[in-house]
């Protein structure tokens, strides 16, 4: 364990000193950390040895996602967002269920011998998106605010919305579901979403009000403006777990509520949460790369590759296109939003839970999910800079001819996480 931690720390330091020139060339941190993990996880080096069944590894990944979700959500103008939910609502209520069905059908068609329940588990694991892998897309102001907002809010909430379906799928695969599927899904959704909202809204409101009142009176030392939100993110997650709700929903709604009540949305309160989440995410990607050596390669088949490619393209893009029907959205925007649905930390967490539960066909499921994430890390990372440039160029010409275009509609947008590195 000590050797693994030393190795991860060295990788983080080495990336840090060259992060700006790498970012300017479109090379993301996830790409670097995953590749480094592959290198140090080879049988020759074996410097990072992760135990898949470890609950600590699962919690570690979850916390990385929780801190990033909370920081992102804190920057959202909640009052303004309520008036501009048309696209995020369509992506979550129409696009997400269709993606689940499409992934389920694709799994049955492509993967030989997989059971119905196995395909259901797989579909729930590959549906959540991770905006952090396409950070440039949701932070570059050249991309229309409405597009950035829709992708940002979708990725923030779909992790938690997938949790009830994932838990039901796991129970079905283990034949321990005592009620009908519909009743189980409804019950799990009520518990995961309901308690997640209670934990997130309650914690976020309390912490936000306390920060605002104390800050207005000059009672808070500078560093505690950063520590308090970090603690609120952790608290919302832990309370949600204790109540039986989704920690992801709690983190995202907690961040939005915290920002609303504290009236603080900028880097003075979000930097630490984001940086801690980024460090944990970096370590997670190193571990993921190390796991890929021993878990993915021995079990990869052409079927797993085909499923991974389809899940990143048609399985995601067609539902997005259907969800945006009737909105006046141009094909270029539909394709752009459909492509940028990267799979990341949430899928890793779901895969670790499924493995720990001992679901049937777990080797096939794990290899397929890991192949999907691996392709996503590099394909979405490498394509973000050129596609953002191409799309923003098209958008500038399009809105000049049609100022009232659907993409140009004003919307509430979260503050930038970081300004993109200069080209």
Automatic annotation (TrEMBL):
It comes from the Bacteria. Residues 10-389 form the Cation/H+ exchanger transmembrane domain. The chain crosses the membrane at residues 29-50, 91-115, 165-186, 193-214, 234-258, 279-299, 305-327, 334-355, 367-391. Keywords: Antiport, Cell membrane, Ion transport, Membrane, Transmembrane, Transmembrane helix, Transport. It is found in: Cell membrane. It is a multi-pass membrane protein. The keyword Transmembrane helix applies. InterPro entries: Cation/H_exchanger_TM (IPR006153), Na+/solute_symporter_sf (IPR038770). This is Cation:proton antiporter. It comes from Amycolatopsis pigmentata. The lineage of its organism: Bacteria, Bacillati, Actinomycetota, Actinomycetes, Pseudonocardiales.
């Amino acid at each position: 364990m000590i050797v693994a931690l030393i190795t991860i720390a060295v990788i983080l330091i080495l990336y840090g000193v060259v992060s700006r020139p790498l970012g300017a060339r479109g090379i993301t941190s996830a790409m670097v950390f995953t590749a480094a993990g592959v290198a140090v996880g080879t049988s020759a080096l074996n410097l990072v040895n992760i135990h898949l069944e470890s609950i600590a590894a699962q919690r570690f990944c979850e916390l990385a996602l929780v801190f990033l979700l909370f920081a992102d959500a804190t920057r959202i103008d909640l009052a303004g967002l309520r008036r501009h939910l048309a696209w995020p609502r369509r992506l979550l209520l129409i696009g997400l269920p269709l993606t689940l069905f499409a992934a389920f059908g694709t799994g049955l068609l492509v993967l030989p011998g997989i059971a119905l329940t196995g395909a259901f588990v797989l579909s729930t694991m590959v549906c959540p998106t991770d905006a952090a892998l396409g950070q440039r897309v949701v932070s570059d102001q050249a991309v229309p605010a409405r597009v950035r907002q829709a992708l940002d809010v979708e990725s923030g909430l779909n992790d938690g919305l997938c949790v009830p379906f994932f838990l039901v799928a796991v129970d079905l695969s283990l034949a321990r579901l005592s009620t009908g599927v519909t009743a189980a899904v409804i019950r799990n959704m009520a518990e995961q979403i309901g308690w997640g909202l209670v934990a997130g809204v309650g914690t976020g409101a309390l912490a936000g009000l306390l920060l605002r009142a104390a800050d207005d009176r000059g009672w808070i030392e500078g560093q505690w403006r950063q520590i308090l939100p970090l603690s609120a993110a952790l608290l919302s997650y832990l309370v949600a777990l204790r109540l039986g709700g989704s920690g992801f929903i709690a983190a995202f709604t907690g961040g939005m509520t915290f920002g609303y009540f504290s009236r603080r949305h900028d880097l003075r309160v979000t930097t630490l949460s984001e940086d801690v989440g980024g460090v944990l995410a970096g370590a997670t990607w190193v571990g993921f790369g190390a796991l890929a050596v021993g878990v993915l390669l021995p079990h990869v088949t052409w079927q797993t590759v085909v499923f991974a490619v389809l899940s990143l393209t048609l399985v995601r893009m067609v539902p997005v296109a259907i969800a945006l029907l009737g909105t006046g959205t141009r094909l270029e925007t539909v394709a752009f939003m459909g492509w940028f649905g990267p799979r990341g930390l949430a899928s890793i967490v779901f895969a670790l839970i499924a493995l720990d539960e001992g679901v049937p066909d777990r080797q096939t499921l794990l290899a397929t999910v890991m192949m999907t994430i691996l392709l996503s890390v590099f394909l979405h990372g490498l394509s973000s800079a050129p596609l953002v440039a191409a799309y923003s160029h098209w958008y500038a010409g399009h809105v000049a001819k049609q100022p009232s275009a659907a993409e140009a509609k004003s919307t509430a947008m979260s503050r930038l996480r970081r300004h993109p590195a200069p080209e």
